[in-house]
């Protein structure tokens, strides 16, 4: 193997490229990037580390408060309403699980004596008794008259007689009360049921026996004397 002379080695060492230098600005830039990444990771860690410590607990408290509020509302709602009429008293069990808006409104109106002196506007034997404003919802009037005229009131154990309901109305004008005197198959499609008669069925039957004209309006005025609320009987 041929030996390289010292002079040639010197020339070769000079021709080799010297390593490139990294500038101070590049070093500072990369250090800043590293610091920012570390801070971001630390902030993310703290957020997710401390979140389970209080947020689920707060959600649990909120859920408990909502449940307590609903339970307290149900507990404060009277269980019964006693409807006094010229024929006698009718005791109604209020369905607390029915439409909350309807039940609350019924209770509020009872407390304000809204039903005091309210007449029974329509009495249709073996069908329904309706009490409320004279100009009650047109859809309800159409339902009552057409259903009675058709005579198609097939019995259904799912929809009993002596149920208490009100008109499915899009507004809050007035408050009609319907007392069914026979099972109605599509009852829930017609009215909002919020209670049932548990005492005084014979009074309901006496009312439906009164004489009416061709429009099913009582010839002799009869109505609700007043409705009182009770927690217990």
What order do the helices and strands come in, and which of them pair?
Elements (H helix, E strand, L loop, with lengths): L5 H10 L8 H53 L3 E6 L2 E7 L5 H12 L8 E5 L3 E4 L6 H13 L12 E5 L9 E4 L6 H4 E9 L1 H8 L15 E7 L3
Order of helices and strands: HHEEHEEHEEHEHE
Computed CA radius of gyration, to the nearest angstrom: 40 Å
- Count of DSSP strands: 8
Largest sheet: 8 strands, antiparallel
* Mean of all residue-level pLDDT scores: 77
Distance between the termini: 123 Å
In short:
By secondary structure, this protein is an alpha+beta fold. The chain is about 45% helix and about 20% strand. The chain has helices spanning about 5-15, 25-75, 100-110, 140-150, 185-190, 200-210; strands at about 80-85, 90-95, 120-125, 130, 165, 175-180, 190-200, 225-230.
């Amino acid at each position: 193997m041929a030996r390289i002379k010292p002079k040639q080695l010197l020339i070769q060492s000079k021709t080799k490229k010297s390593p490139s230098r990294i500038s101070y600005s590049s070093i500072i830039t990369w250090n800043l990037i590293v610091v920012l990444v570390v801070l971001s990771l630390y902030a993310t860690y703290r957020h997710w580390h401390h979140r389970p410590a209080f947020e689920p607990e707060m959600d649990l408290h909120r859920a408990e408060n909502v449940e307590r509020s609903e339970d307290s509302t149900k507990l404060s709602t009277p269980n019964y309403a006693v409807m006094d009429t010229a024929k006698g008293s009718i005791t109604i069990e209020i369905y607390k699980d029915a439409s909350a808006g309807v039940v609350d409104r019924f209770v509020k109106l009872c407390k304000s004596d809204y039903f005091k002196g309210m007449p029974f506007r329509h009495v249709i034997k073996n069908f329904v008794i309706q009490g409320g404003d004279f100009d009650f919802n047109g859809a309800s009037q159409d339902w009552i008259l057409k259903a009675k005229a058709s005579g198609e009131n097939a019995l259904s154990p799912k929809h009993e007689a002596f149920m208490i309901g009100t008109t499915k109305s899009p507004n809050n004008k007035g408050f009609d009360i319907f007392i069914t005197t026979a099972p109605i198959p599509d009852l829930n499609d017609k009215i909002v049921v919020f209670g049932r008669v548990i005492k005084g069925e014979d009074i309901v039957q006496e009312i439906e026996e009164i004489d009416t004209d061709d429009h099913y309006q009582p010839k002799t005025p009869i109505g609700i004397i007043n409705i009182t609320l009770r927690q217990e009987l």
